[in-house]
Amino acid sequence: MTEKHTFGAEISKLLKLMIHSLYTNKDIFLRELISNASDACDKLRYKAVTNPGLLGSDGALKIILSSDRKAKTITIADNGIGMSREELIANLGTIAKSGTQEFLGALTGDAKKDMPLIGQFGVGFYSAFIVSDKVTVESCKAGSTQGYRWESEGTGEFTISEAEHAAHGTTVTLHIKKGDEAYLDKFRLRHIVETYSDHISFPIDYKDEDGQIETINKGSALWMRPKSEISEEQYKEFYHHIAHSPDMPWMTLHNKAEGKVEYTSLLFIPSMQPFDLFHPDRKRRVKLYVKRVFITEEGTDIIPQYLRFLQGVIDSEDLPLNISRETLQYNPLLGKIRDSIVKRVLSELKKRAEKDPEAYSVFWKNFGAVLKEGLCEATAPKEQILEACRFYSTHTEGLVSLDDYLARMKEGQEHIFYLTGDKIDLLRNNPQLEGFKQRGIEVLLFSDHVDDFWVNVVQDYKKKPFKSVTRSNIELDKMGEMKAEKEEGAKEKTQMEPLIQVLKKIYGEQVKDVRITHKLEGSAVCLAVEEGAMDIRLERFLREQKQLATTYAKILEINPAHTIIKSLAERVVKGADDSDTMLRDVALLLFDQAKILEGEEVSDPAAFSQRINGFLAKGLAA
């Protein structure tokens, strides 16, 4: 019995792009299908460690490639894990990956621009339709004797029927389009395999029309070969195989560790950001092998989440071959491998940052926010992570390191100052920075959400504490290029004290305190918090996430040198108090203005609007 199914809307859209040659290089279809076959063999090899019966009579896992000029077909067969009826429908009828909506939203319809998106979502199977007008898939799940056939012409539907495919594995048959018959040639197929799939650790055999079989790849794990025997092209193609992504690796790390812990790692840092990098699942993409047998790429902490952008493999000689995913969680050897990997990756990042800052900025824009998540982890090497971190600052348009910052600290400066916000451009114009800029004191600008958290975990860097410029009582006059006289400060305090008392009465419980500040130059007021209190932006974030029920009162800091503040102070000296309508309206406008500048909500927008309109009307009438 044959069942008809309709493709999901996302697959129909994808197939349309595929049929119109989404990949600029059509050879890619064979790489993708062989990679899928290799993954199927890997999965069966792992399951057979604890259940040898799944292998049946086929002890050797392999991939067989063949072509038929008369029938105009290419066949890619494997004796791997296979698929059940439900898996054929789920895996080939929908995009069975997270981020489908993001993927579809990113498609532009421009083949050249859309090409890199395919690899990121693991939908390489559909590249088969680049060269075929019909694809047939026959598969039998290991442990079962019932096979099923999936077939589609790449239009709006596919069919599922029972098939006599008693042996486990999958056979994909491509019915080649007119004009693409060159792919039926044995030597063309062999060249593609040698170019893109030579690293596959299972034999790839070519079976000709006379039944003769020839192995056409080396069939050895690339990561186990000496570096001297591996070309850049081979590294690149292995990256494409392991990552299912068409971009070039930004960095390649191939290392064999010997001593107390022995393992081989071949890791890549991508040059582009995967769509699901910030997905709640925080999936990691490094495969764990034991003695060249694939074990898992999920359910293990061999790679910390803050390095989840890494792609590649780690192969251990010391772990037992029959180790289970559950046992992995508690194996101390895994922790040692993890620590070694982390140390090496961070060391290489630091070297690259110092050697090629421009190239490093590409990495940082893609993955800097992820790397900084490690600063929130209790066991992470925080100082080593901070050495690899780069930040925007008031000193320059580009990125700076913390060591650069320390080298530029002013005489008398004891803190690393920073300001958090949503956008760098807005941060640069924040009034809180005015006094720092005037005195030549550098401030780091943090715009990633993770910055609100790690600064509360990491207290200092090389014994210099971090301090937000939104903290109250920052004594700028003790540092920098402008130092005020003590007498002048005392005089200001005396002149402003009557105004401060009136303002406190006007604001009441809306503010925690009213204080003088020298952080401001062109602005009249700003909000601040006490040392040790929750940062303004973090409080707002927690409130938005419903993790905080209320807003805490802030400190209102006033600029004693500003014209408006001076005028209010003079008005108070002449006898005005908190009942003075003009003084009260100006004071409330200044408070609302300070809240707006910090991204806070104005408590009474209607009253704020009326006060603004009142002053505008008076100004126009003057």
List the helices and strands and how they pair.
Layout: E1 3-6, H1 9-19, H2 28-50, E2 63-68, E3 73-78, H3 85-93, H4 100-106, H5 111-120, E4 132-140, E5 147-152, E6 157-163, E7 169-176, H6 186-196, E8 204-207, E9 213-215, H7 232-243, E10 249-257, E11 263-270, E12 285-290, E13 293-296, E14 311-316, H8 325-328, H9 332-355, H10 357-371, H11 382-388, E15 391-393, E16 399-400, H12 402-407, E17 416-420, H13 424-428, H14 434-438, E18 444-446, H15 451-454, E19 460-461, E20 464-468, H16 486-507, E21 511-516, E22 525-528, H17 536-544, E23 554-558, H18 563-573, H19 581-597, H20 605-621
Parallel strand pairs: 2-8, 12-14, 17-18, 17-20, 21-23
Antiparallel strand pairs: 1-6, 2-3, 3-7, 4-5, 4-7, 5-6, 8-9, 10-11, 11-14, 12-13, 15-16, 15-18, 19-20, 22-23
Helix pairs in contact: 9-10, 9-11, 16-18
Read across the widest sheet, the strand sequence of neighbours is 1-6-5-4-7-3-2-8-9
Unreliable runs: 96-101, 114-122
Pairing-aware structural class of the strands and helices? alpha+beta
Number of helices: 20
Q: Which key terms come to mind for this protein?
A:
alpha+beta; nine-stranded mixed sheet; 622 residues; six-stranded mixed sheet
Question: What features would you describe in this structure?
Answer:
The chain is α+β, with helices and mostly antiparallel strands and 622 residues long. 37% of the residues lie in helices and 19% in strands. It has 20 helices and 23 strands. It has a nine-stranded mixed beta sheet with strand order 1-6-5-4-7-3-2-8-9, covered by helices on one side. A six-stranded mixed beta sheet has the order 16-15-18-17-20-19. Strand 10 and strand 11 (263-270) form a beta hairpin. Helix 9 runs antiparallel to helix 10 (357-371), helix 9 packs parallel to helix 11 and helix 16 packs across helix 18. It is elongated, with a radius of gyration of 32 Å. The termini are far apart. Mean pLDDT is 86; it is low at 96-101 and 114-122.
